[in-house]
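Hi, here's the filled form for the chain we discussed.

Project: internal
Contact: R.S.
Residues: 288
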Amino acid sequence: MTGEEEQEEIRQEIASADAVRPEKFDIAIRVRGLVNQFGDAVIHDHLDLDVRSGEILGVVGGSGTGKSVLMRSIVGLQTPTAGEIEVYGRTLDTITDAEESRDLRRRWGVMFQGGALFSTLSVAENIQVPLREYYPRLDQTLLDEIAAYKVAMVGLPPDAGPKYPAELSGGMVKRAGLARALALDPALLFLDEPTAGLDPIGAAKFDALIRELADTMGLTVFLITHDLDSLYATCDRVAVLAEKKVIAVGTIPELLATEHPWIQDYFNGPRGRAATTSHGRAAHDRKS
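And the returned structure, exactly as it came back:
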């Protein structure tokens, strides 16, 4: 490839990126009429949801309500039975141009449950996987520099980069998974149960990290969690999945004012009351 050809390719990438520039959209994700069905089992039945740009949206629901299925549908890993999913004004299943689809997909990063790192790759090599896929012309020196930066960004020590997942603690694996999700500097971050399995101190530190990164990088975050403390510490709004739909979306005080039995049981049960008390005490201490 000549120098002029390479410059033209870069110009085309920039033009394509401008078409889906996140700041142009008030709604980052728009889901309408979503149906997900596996055999006779209907998981979602005409589900609607809007995720606002720049917010951290918590997604909660009982087991089997399809929280992870919803996330997988949005990122294109699950083909819905019916409905429409729009991300930054583009509908994935209607995009026919491969490069346009790639450009949209690199706008998001995903941290799956448990980190989902490749066990045969080091932390640095895991972080470099999406970089190699979307930017194959990057040389190894730059790849190593980016990986080192991402390692530091999520609060891991420099010597974590050459280590393999089996050599890390559970909390470090979570942070390494987050570093990989942030490898492409996404505008949209998907997190599936990021604090599951962490002790209370580790979970609180991870919550603080998510909040800090979201504020610093201007991220929109789609956060699946069962952790009530995480909802209070990080989320701007919460979407509740039940009855095969999103039955309510709002701030925690707004949800507490609703009369739906599941919402009341979830937020006003013993663990919910404990989280409310803890959050209120922390807020009081910050003001003091």
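Let me know if anything looks off before we file it.
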